[in-house]
Amino acid sequence: MYIDKTYPFEVNCFSYFNALEKCLGTISLLNHYNNIYCVHVNNLNNLLSKYPFLQKYSLDELIYNYNLFKIDEKDELYKLSSAVYAHHVFFNSLTSCKQDVYTLPIYSAILNSFGSLDGFYDEFKKCALSIVGSGYVYLTCDKNLKLSIVKTANYDTPIAQNLYPLLALDMWEHSYFLKFNTDRSLYIDNFLSCLNFEYANSEYLECKKCV
Question: What confidence score (pLDDT) does residue 1 get?
């Protein structure tokens, strides 16, 4: 669970960029990874290096409690912490490997919350298309292990709502414009076609341990 990590935060490595060329575009993914995600991680670590008392806090604690910290850069701290976490979930939400979601425990949770896998896809896409401007769409789990789809503005996460992110779709223009131009519908469809349900399932099981 990356959310439990503390300073210095590390950039996760992914091996699927070339394999997802037809789906999301290798150049687009690499640009997003190197110029957005890695930069946010570096900037967050640089900010925290100036405040040793903040270095003991996990990522979720920084996001949830940022307004309590007596530093001039608390808004920047919130933005960077949220951006790092949002991108961590987004890149982990993708895979080039074939998966059998029907054998995973999360599949039953999907059925309970959305009726079917297609019902989940439809609701997720509808939520994503409703975003005006920049934001994210998350599949989340609550304390009752109920799944829901929520959208957030800019780099906000569902953490402040006591919801745990399992999957995330980045709806900022930098995530899709190089390959899809303004065709957000096709971008969403392609994202949904390479979802990493095994990652979502592992996070779901972590949630179950906490209940």
Answer: 52
Kind and range of the H or E element at 198? helix 197-210
Give the three-state DSSP class for 152. strand
Backbone angles phi, psi at 165, to 5 degrees: -70, 135
Which residues, given as ranges, of the chain have pLDDT below 50?
A: none
DSSP class of residue 68 equals G
The whole-angstrom separation of Cα 5 and Cα 102 is 31
Amino acid sitting at position 207: C
The answer for residues whose C-beta is within 8 angstroms of residue 31's C-beta and 6 or more apart is 174, 178
| Best CA proximity match to 32, nearest among 115, 88, 79 | 88
- Tell me the C-alpha distance between 4 and 121, whole Å: 29
Query: Is the pTM value of this prediction over 0.90?
Result: yes
DSSP 8-state assignment for residue 34: I
pLDDT at 2: 62
Write the CA distances from 116 to 5, 27, 93, 107, integer angstroms: 34, 34, 19, 9
